[in-house]
Queue: 2 jobs
Job 1
Amino acid sequence: MSETENLDQVRQRMEQLTDELEKHNKAYYVDNNPTISDELYDSMFQELSRLEAQYPQFKSLFSPTQRVGAAVQSELSKVRHAVPMLSIYTETDYTAEGAYNFEARMRRELELPEDVSIEYDTELKFDGLAINLRYEDGILVQAATRGDGYTGEDVTANVKTIRTIPLRAEGLPKVFEVRGEVIMHKAVFERLNEEQKALGLKLFANPRNAAAGSLRQLDPALTAKRSLNFYAYGFGEVSEMPVSSQSELLVYLKGKGFPVAPEHGLAHNPEELQAFHSRVAEIRQDLPFDIDGVVYKVNSFDRQKQLGFVSREPRWACAHKYPPEEVQTQVLDITVQVGRTGKLTPVARLKPVFVGGVTVSNVSLNNEEFLEKLGVKIGDTVVVHRAGDVIPEVVRVIPELRPADAKDFVMPEICPVCGSHAYKEEGEKDRHCSGGPFCKAQRVQAILHFVSRTAMGIGGIGEKLAEQLIHADLVKTVADIYKLKKENLLGLERMGEKSAENLLASIEASKHTTLERFIYALGVPEVGEATARTLASHFGALKKIEEASLEQLMEVEDIGPAVAECILHFFAEPVNLEVIGALIEDGVTWEENQGTKDEDLPFKGMTFVLTGSLPTLSRDKASDLIRKFGGKVSGSVSKKTAYVLAGEAAGSKLAKAQELGINIISEEDLFKLINQGDNTDV
Ligand code: IVH
């Protein structure tokens, strides 16, 4: 074999390896559908690296070996963008107004007759950093950050390490610049910060900062380790445009191997724009990356040209934001709250911030373990998170912003309310006040729990009044609530004749209750509404629960040894039995039965959803009734819903039920269903 022939073979082999490896790379990282084993990939990769070292003249511009990082650079050089990278008009009205404002502006600018609609492309607004990828003859030749919009930084070597960015794309026009967002997935971010912490390195405040820091590295090998991602949504300089609208562009880019987030669509009026905004708001938490809004773009490129630009923004696009889910604020103080069961909870008093749609000023710090993990001091700047309906939480401290006079916080070893010893048992996370009913904080909380809507449902007793009742010695145990007289109440602050009468009426009305509500109201540790309900339906009578052994308690569905132990303890305590006795003596009643096996109940295994207001039953009463007959009550309609119980002014749940073909019933139908099952009186 001649030497040229031999070299030809080497070159061919290198080309083949390059092609194969990139194909598998896309299958693995972009399509999430690996086609070969990691071992085979590695061995091909090593063979290619070896050949490239030996025959550098054949190394391809799009060799996958670049993805592990090239030589360290001394600086990132400047790049002038062929087409400026503009900013976007941002609509900060979080409500539907945002969508209407945009549509109104577009209609005005385009001067369209009323019966002509405008088509919009709707996309996610990624919270990362914009980047320009320049392809010449289908090969990635340069990647640059946005910078000031006109000049950015050359991050080509770093970008080549992002596995989802094609190093080559077949069939692209001669010059084609793809624009999109470099982001860090939330899971990658969490992992990175854990590693940084373990190594004593600085933490990143959020995924966007981490992505920016990782992309603007001088050492591409470092970028490679950070597992960045990319989503395409636009273009820069293009020698010849193959499509004529934004939605076609996204399809085209995807076809060429660029990652395009699947959450995009079309809209033709402000209602549809807003529907996209709302739909994305619901899935926002579940997306693997952060977004801070959605983007609306006039779809047709011709119309985009017609609309043109104002200063540095195109007129044809608009970002419609969401309230931030993560914000920074300062910890003004850390105080300790004492709960109903004596549990001490440290609470961060924050400089109020707007996050996830609400203003937050107090956030629980859970317990000592959490405090320690967080490493928070009074005066620190922290990141507060609240997504959807979840409870706000402090996720991390930003150590760079710690003031010199930041103060340490230690959990007290005495109860801040009653001064009793606050103990923490081996292996327990929580510290408890040992004061029991002597601790006023515990008594206040016990009252608030007892009167709460889903317990005895006594309206009109809030924290302030509960404190007064305790301080005035009018209420020592919850049973004393039923002994209150008008003349006692009138002596209290801000208690007039009328409110005293209302309160007494509400107390009187609460006397007739259900067994499950009564058990829940007692405040047995670890017994929430659901457990109270199963206890009530399993045993049927209070006496049987009081007398149940550990074994008998553990026979109940969903009750484990720890909960059984709590129940046993509670009913072994003479004080608790005295309170129960007093409550019954005061006239608290409920109906007892034999304790039904759940299977006998007519609604066993069925889920109900309530919407609108019913003619006679309150929502709580209707829920009680459904549960009494073995059913479950849920807040949202799904395919699994058995019945939607609809009343006056039913809303979106009714529409959803109709869409899914779920049985819709009235209050009257509910009574009929119950009476068909057996002849029990409702
Ligand atoms: S379009 C002017 N689409 O928003 C319109 N931008 O661009 C050209 N951004 O900082 C950009 N998601 O990082 C566009 N789906 C999306 C986007 C998006 C996020 C960011 C981008 C830039 C800013 C303005």
Job 2
Amino acid sequence: MNLEAIIASIVEEMRAAPDRGEVATYIPSLAGVDPGQFGMAVVTADGQVFAGGDAETAFSIQSISKVFALTLALGKVGDRLWNRVGREPSGSAFNSIVQLEAEQGIPRNPFINAGAIVVSDVNLAGHAPREAIGELVHFIRYLASDDGIAIDEAVARSEQETGERNRALAHYMRAFGNLHHPVELTLGVYFHACAIAMSCRQLAMAGRYLMLCGAHPEGGRVISDKRARRINALMLTCGHYDQSGDFAFRVGMPGKSGVGGGILAIVPGKASIAVWSPGLSRNGNSQLGSLALERLADATGWSVFGL
Ligand code: GLN
């Protein structure tokens, strides 16, 4: 298989694609990102990296941070996390509040905003917000073997200024006793996690532990193989909100999207993949990112469902 040629042809198609989706505007600092960009990076299990297009450009990882924050929270509280967050696809938008009332403030899964806010609350326990944020950034640097990864403070500020929906979710969950810290502290952790900036190359590197059953490629173990399998399962079923079924149907890989236009996709045992194109589908997932992964799955036969 010639991955270099496959990526080059995907990059060429995506560069010229006419239907690029719409850049997120509800976070003002994301509204100005050029929708003409497309990047892709693939890290294989034997450690080779293949990259194309704007693979070195840092973008806002947004909800992809929910994967790393979940990994950290499970390390702190283990399965007790599941008393506060569910494990079912929501079938509704990433920032929806409707299910929270019927389900007593327990979010459907850790990859919608409400779920990730609870995960942030778990990661905040015993820390000042600044420390909890620092811990997550250090964790991601360790996963990616890259000390250059940092938070885009302008994006964090922009979210903080406009995040009324997230505030509503947080207050609502706190009313049910499912948020243990003051809303602004927990949201400070959540907004800064979303504002982490990474390139496709850095993101694909950070996802290696999920392709390697929880092992760190440079030695040691990030998490157990069972936990890696479970995180991959959640990415497959919940990683694209109300478009998760469509993504599984078209791509067939565990994947997590963010409104910055990035997607992290995992082929267990084979590859960790990051794609980025800022234009979104109406469900808030990268329009061309999903299409690029569909093309990659078709060209390589990579999928968790067999050839
Ligand atoms: N920071 C974004 C928000 O809270 C994350 C959403 C996303 O990437 N889907 O709305």
